[in-house]
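Lab notebook, bench 4. The sequencing result for the construct came back, and we need a structural model before the next group meeting so we can plan mutations. Quick request posted to the team channel:

Model the 3D structure of this chain.
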Amino acid sequence: MAVHMFGAIDVGSYEIGLKVYQISRGKGINVIDHLERRIDLGSDTYNTGKLSYERVQQVGKILAEYAKIMNTYKVEDYKAYGTSAIREMNNKSLVLPQWESASGIHVDVISNSEQRFLDYKSVASRGSQFDDFIRDTCAIVDIGGGSIQISLFDENVLTATQNMPLGILRLYDSVSALDARSSQKEMLIEEIVDAQIQTFQKLYLGDRKIHNIIVVDDYISSFLQSRHTEYVDTKNVDKISQIARESSLNGLSRSLGMTTDALQLLFVSAVMLRVIAREFGADTIWAPGVTLCDGIAYEYAEKKRILPPSHNFEEDILACARNISNRYQGSMARSRTLETIAVKIFEATKKIHGLGKRELLLLRIATTLHDCGKYISMADIGECGYQIIMSTEIIGLSHIEREIVANVVKFNHSDFIYFEEQQNASDLDEAAYQTIAKLTAILRIANGLDRSHKQKFGDIRVHIQGDRMILTVQAGIDITLEKGMISHRADFFEEVFGLTPVIKQAKN
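Done. Here's the predicted structure in token form:
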């Protein structure tokens, strides 16, 4: 039985963590070592957009230490991710190479949606516990240093996710900067959080109640684990904030096994969670104590096919896209038809386009969101759709993947802008533009085949015959409109794939 040694590093807002894992098919994922180095990066970057010279040097030394530890364990592979504090650095291109030079560790900066999706995967790796907890209405409250992410589940299905600038480090710094007494600070935190949560509730919950909350954080989870539990009744969350406040004031941090700084952030987390639980009408909170590193390790094991996936994460991403479509009055029936046609074309032309499962997922998302722009303007659907998608987080997608989807939706309705014409207007490279062109060509054909919105091509068959792509539809259907529309859309498909789309009807 092969055993894999893997290292996961989280360069976070207020600490840098390393976990070394032993991963095997028989024994699953096991933590061999876990180190944390407290360093406040968030206060620098959230306020100035840069890290001080001293902080840059400190991080380089910590990463060098972690590299030696991983070598000791004979780690065969690793991933190091920078999160919100690193995302908000204005000079990442200068600092990241310095860290790699000092330690040999390459730090990738992940988007918020990627970070939260990894956190979500870390909880899902708990298997049946996770499945049981989201069977009823449930919210994952992912508390970070710079922001929080709330993801809603209803009967095992992800229905909404939203990021808010309510991170505990950002909140703590904001309240500390005010001229307020200690007794007032709790009230100020409550007011700030309550304003945001009430808006979220109006947009996504209405009169529904959320019975269960899963909290992903560093401090509440640690506090509960020190009391040998992962669960707390929402009525008792207030006790956590009281203990944190009184212990911090009385210098009792050592008796709790937490630093004074950690107690203050525990206090902010508990007050925030208390407000959320109250507004949601929740009964039970589960703090499984998972970290971003656990999600990184789980994703590694999944991608390397060491362990089978415990949850259908792709369906969660699609569910998030469907929720966005519903919000902007999209047609689910038409989206399903477009998806069916587009997927069949994608599969039939696989040897030509060379794209994989991830690009197929992006195509399916684009079919779901193809008409969201009409909510704003019927005359400029493409550009409005682009702006909606780029302004709306889709959990699990990187920023570049979201931009690919947004461009496919845009160019489905407007003239294609070639890579050579964009003149550095985008961060996308030529490979990403090739993907956009291929997915756009497929979506345009699918859109033309359902121009009447009557789902005539729901059972279409697609096959390649020489330099033609034959699209066969059942007999007895009037396809005069579709034949006319396909001729207008065939030029770009021919340009991208070197194939001419031809519609045929099956014989009776």
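The longest strand covers residues 28-38.
Will bring this to the meeting.
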